Amino acid sequence: MSIVLGPNQYGKAETRVVRVVRDGARHELRDLNVSVALAGDLAGTHLTGDNTAVLPTDTQKNTVYAFAKRYGIGEPEEFGLRLARHFVASQPSIGRARVSIEQYAWRRLGPHSFQRDGGETRTCAVTVDSDGEWVVSGLTDLVLLNSTDSEFWGYAKDEYTTLPETKDRVLATAVSARWLHASSTMDWAASYDGVRAALVAAFVETYSLSLQQTLYAMGRRVLEERPEIAEVRLALPNKHHLLVDLSPFGLDNPNEVFVAADRPYGLIEGSVLRAGASPVDGAF
Amino acid sequence: MSIVLGPNQYGKAETRVVRVVRDGARHELRDLNVSVALAGDLAGTHLTGDNTAVLPTDTQKNTVYAFAKRYGIGEPEEFGLRLARHFVASQPSIGRARVSIEQYAWRRLGPHSFQRDGGETRTCAVTVDSDGEWVVSGLTDLVLLNSTDSEFWGYAKDEYTTLPETKDRVLATAVSARWLHASSTMDWAASYDGVRAALVAAFVETYSLSLQQTLYAMGRRVLEERPEIAEVRLALPNKHHLLVDLSPFGLDNPNEVFVAADRPYGLIEGSVLRAGASPVDGAF
Amino acid sequence: MSIVLGPNQYGKAETRVVRVVRDGARHELRDLNVSVALAGDLAGTHLTGDNTAVLPTDTQKNTVYAFAKRYGIGEPEEFGLRLARHFVASQPSIGRARVSIEQYAWRRLGPHSFQRDGGETRTCAVTVDSDGEWVVSGLTDLVLLNSTDSEFWGYAKDEYTTLPETKDRVLATAVSARWLHASSTMDWAASYDGVRAALVAAFVETYSLSLQQTLYAMGRRVLEERPEIAEVRLALPNKHHLLVDLSPFGLDNPNEVFVAADRPYGLIEGSVLRAGASPVDGAF
Amino acid sequence: MSIVLGPNQYGKAETRVVRVVRDGARHELRDLNVSVALAGDLAGTHLTGDNTAVLPTDTQKNTVYAFAKRYGIGEPEEFGLRLARHFVASQPSIGRARVSIEQYAWRRLGPHSFQRDGGETRTCAVTVDSDGEWVVSGLTDLVLLNSTDSEFWGYAKDEYTTLPETKDRVLATAVSARWLHASSTMDWAASYDGVRAALVAAFVETYSLSLQQTLYAMGRRVLEERPEIAEVRLALPNKHHLLVDLSPFGLDNPNEVFVAADRPYGLIEGSVLRAGASPVDGAF
User: Fold this and answer.
1) What residue in A sits closest to D245 (Cα-Cα)?
2) Coiled coil: which residue ranges (chains A, B, C, D) (predicted)?
3) D162 is catalytic
């Protein structure tokens, strides 16, 4: 039985670019981590080491820096689209380009002074091929906690179940969310702000019987409020806050003192989408 | 347009279990990090918070520990299969179970003394559903370096290309490899050792014109030597070793002094499989 | 020549405690990582394994949780003092206790909802022994950047110097600062806010000829504004933002596009103190 | 009360240098992470931004690379001494240089092929000033485990003590060790191998009543076997392996199934030195 090359891609990962816009005394700052992955007719380099079709990953890095100067960065989705279109359009052997971006936020302290905002990271993944363009925006490491209004009971039990049911627990998670846009023309900044606000509002306002219920509420809220979004995918680690047993010390503990546990953790993953739409895995 | 729940799963991630086998004075040690993900008829918990179908992730954790005692661990693939089959068989609402395991190696120092071997981590991902069973074994963080016998030239050039061609460079990577077994009955330990040896041998023995060529040679070697393997997927970061320009100091640098760079890095990803087989994405 | 035991200490590191204060619907949250280190007459356990003098680290952990319930946490310095005094007072063999705390900030989203604030971590190190009490407060990972008003020139040059002088560069750092209080009775929250504000203001307002100059300005500003502080120690990594050479692409780059480099980095460390005071190394 | 500059230093941290020695077909590899810190008459740059005395950290980095070519690296202690002496000798304003090095190990796979050995990292810290030279060698992340021959009982108990005494437990730690050489002329490689072997042997062979006892045995063994060593400092985290309670599942657990816990952890720190010697804190 013979052996063949399957799906493959290559590119430059984690090019760190900071772009300062210096129009007068008041500077603006964009801080990105850009990863490029290209696919196409790349059998030659794999089978014989013929690199004719291979645009070096070093060139991809240079392109990121040159485009940051030539066109500016703007919103990460715009920058990703510009880069992805460029690689597909300019390289005959490249049929698909995927640009993944992390954007780090900075808070203004002065006309040219900034503090890194250590909260969530904004992300996007842009895919361009001959069939079309897909833009998935997202965020990671948005850590949220409700100190009450969360229950967990009525679950399946088997011989290995020891967890007590509870009508009041801490619910905490580090949100990783990605959402597919219905189009690649968009007010990206407004859309991001709107989706983020919907996610947070749903987490805060949902009286939760399970983290799955909260996940669905978050995805649903985004789709209800943001018509430009086709699908939301969420991964929510259950950052367990374990109630400490203080009874050996003659103390009760009515949901006041917790261990913030590292591992293990529950992990709840799910997608919420508009009825009739089929999941577009390649875009995510 | 109405809104619906899409694909979803949940489980306990990163349960750390160490199992000591104490048959007499000479102990054996297994050290695992186990993650479980279950899917099935879970609409209730998402839509209304009805947890009837939800086996708590805490129970999944308990099951890992109880099975480690009751059945021992053995090879990680065996342990993963036993756990995955258990969840699917015992929970009416669960149609698919996926168990992902990292195994950390320890080197023997004495009858009951061990040193953690900090090299690669052995991995596996076992998937069980009503259609069958899939076992993917793998490894991560196997860092390999050839200090010569690597070239890179003849590549595509555009206006952003500045990389000089080279007939001699350092080639280094941190291998992440996963391979699909043709069956779920196997001598897992022997297979792992054989695949690992094939990957290393191909890296060492390939005179490389591109990291893609090395990737393909590694996957091909596995399939040639190991009939039990159906497909190999590799992700190879190009851990760039940049030649330092010492000419300002009146020194030449004939491939002797390098910067080991962190970011950015090239990332080469690809699969190698037997002709006629179709990639089985769900197993990976 | 005989062999003896030198200085030693032991304790429980990184006890993670979250304390919810539930006075009515509006909850408050404290989130700490507490490390205890005890020293004293501990020769027995080292030389013969006689543990009579050893209060288990597990007990230290329990004490953290019990004190969080019994007394509340309040400011981290208060909590650290209470714990350190307890160990010295209650254990005859313990002559010195040191409690180091990291406090993670949360931003309020609702009466019982919070978002983890990913910026700097507030720290303190409290030392109590028979000679007295020392409280060092601090912060880490406060990342600041000035996109102009920084020069670097006029430095020493030798045969290995290639760095071009500059009259305009990006200056960025991740501030690690620790400051010694003149007393262990203090309005800790007000003091922290004041010191933090002074550090930031000095970074923002200093036209910098070297990162050392900025460091000294930051320390000096704290001592000028905060009479309760005796000494400030700063460690400032120079998070290099390297100007990209875009000339191969026909583009100039007037301080607009930068590589945010990971390694190597400059590291500037120094202390600023009141004249006549001697550095109190044991407190830091 | 006036404000003054206290102790300070500056330098380039984490310069990553890989040196290939290519004498014929069989290559040799050294892989280091080098950090330099210089101190001296540096008031000018702090107080006024006068950089006359400041050799740029960029120059320090260049020196690392140039020296790697010009002199080779050899053992890390040699390389550190050469660098530290150079800075003190060549820069009038620099009175003290400290070079800290991490060396990453590689295992040979072929004449020019290597695998990164992921075990412990070898370290050294070299300090040179007008009073002399101090060399501290060390290692970090050597993870050791005894699955029996460890007890812990007879300890102090107070109202917060709940830990049960045990006559049989797992003892595991990640060794961080540093040892001061009596001289700066040494067969560094042989000394390293000897010290490392002594540390491991003592861990393996000590029937342990406390981790402190094991710590002291490790330090003592080094001093007994290696006359060239003046003092050993050890930091041993107690990597707790917690026995899982399997009784709810009708299973006993005679020291067979453990949770490998992340946090919190005990931390045991101590030094062992020759009688009459005083600890030389500045060297460590």
Assistant:
1) A162
2) none
3) no
Asked whether residue B154 carries a pLDDT value surpassing 90, the answer given is: yes
Radius of gyration over every alpha carbon of chain B, rounded to an integer in angstroms: 23
**CB B274 to CB A4 under 8 A?**
yes
- Same domain (yes/no): C58, C113: yes
Q: Look up tokens 């089929």; give the residue.
A: A278
Total-model pTM: 0.98
- Split at pLDDT 50, 70, 90, the class of B267 is very high
Query: How far is A63 from chain C, CA to nearest CA, in Å?
Result: 9
Spatial CB neighbours of D90, under 8 Å, sequence gap ≥ 6: C158
Query: Is the residue at A183 inside a domain?
Result: yes
C240 is catalytic: yes
- How many CB atoms sit inside 10 A of residue C43's CB? 16
The verdict on C94 and C173 lying in the same domain is no
Q: Which residues of A touch C118 (CB under 8 A)?
A: 117-120, 141, 143
Contact status, residue B243 vs residue B256, Cβ threshold 8 Å = no
Contact flag A200-C143 (C-beta cutoff 8 Å): no
Q: Does C261 touch chain A (CB under 8 A)?
A: yes
Question: Token pair 């619906």 is at which residue?
Answer: B4
Enter the ipTM: 0.96
Clarify whether residues B151 and B206 are in a common domain: yes
User: Is residue C283 domain-resident?
Assistant: no
Alpha-carbon gap: B264 to the closest alpha carbon of chain C (Å): 10
How far is D65 from B257, CA to CA, in rounded Å? 7
Q: Domain of residue A265: give its range.
A: 131-276
Here the CATH number for the domain that contains residue D160 is 3.10.270.10
Task: Say if D221 falls within a structural domain.
Answer: yes
Q: Based on the fold, state whether residues D99 and D136 are members of the same structural domain.
A: no
Using the 3D structure, point to which of C78, C95, C130 is the last residue of a domain: C130
Residues D156 and D67 in one domain: no
3-state SS assignment for residue B238: strand
Q: Is any Cβ of chain B less than 8 angstroms from the Cβ of A265?
A: yes
pLDDT of C23 over the 90 cut: no
Does residue B45 share a domain with residue B77? yes
B194 and B226 fall within a common domain: yes
- Does residue C56 sit in helix, strand or coil? coil
Mean pLDDT of B69-75: 98
Looking at residue C215, its amino acid is L
How many domains is chain C partitioned into structurally? 2
Q: Is residue B25 part of a domain?
A: yes
Q: Which residues of chain D, if any, have pLDDT below 50?
A: none
Tokens of D99: 């070079």
Six-digit token string for B72: 């021992």
Distance, in angstroms, between D160 CA and closest chain A CA?
6
pLDDT at position C1: 65
B66 in D contact zone (CB under 8 Å): yes
Q: What is the mean pLDDT of the segment spanning A122-151?
A: 97
Task: With a cut of 90, say whether residue B54 has pLDDT above it.
Answer: yes
pLDDT digits (tens, 9 = 90+) for C233-254: 999 999 999 999 999 999 999 9
pLDDT digits (tens, 9 = 90+) for C26-71: 999 999 999 999 999 999 999 999 999 999 999 999 999 999 999 9
- Nearest to residue C39, comparing CAs of C80, C68, C10, C67? C10
Query: For A53-92, what is each residue's pLDDT tens digit?
Result: 999 999 999 999 999 999 999 999 999 999 999 999 999 9
End position of a domain, from candidates B67, B96, B130: B130
Q: Do D114 and B62 touch (CB under 8 A)?
A: no
DSSP string, D92-150: TTEEEEEEEEEEEEEEEEETTEEEEEEEEEEEEEEEEETTEEEEEEEEEEEEEEESSSB
Whether the predicted pLDDT of A1 surpasses 70: no
Question: How near does any CA of chain A get to the CA of D244, in Å?
Answer: 13
- A77 to chain B, any CB pair closer than 8 A? The answer is no
Does the pLDDT of residue B279 top 80, yes or no?
no
Chosen from B1, B9, B46 to mutate, greatest number of chain A CBs within 10 A: B46
Question: Distance from CA of residue B161 to its chain's centroid?
Answer: 34
Instruction: Show residues of chain C in contact with D155, CB under 8 Å.
Output: 51-52, 54-56
- Residue B1 confidence (pLDDT) above 70: no
pLDDT at C278 over 80: no
A202 and A186 housed in the same domain: yes
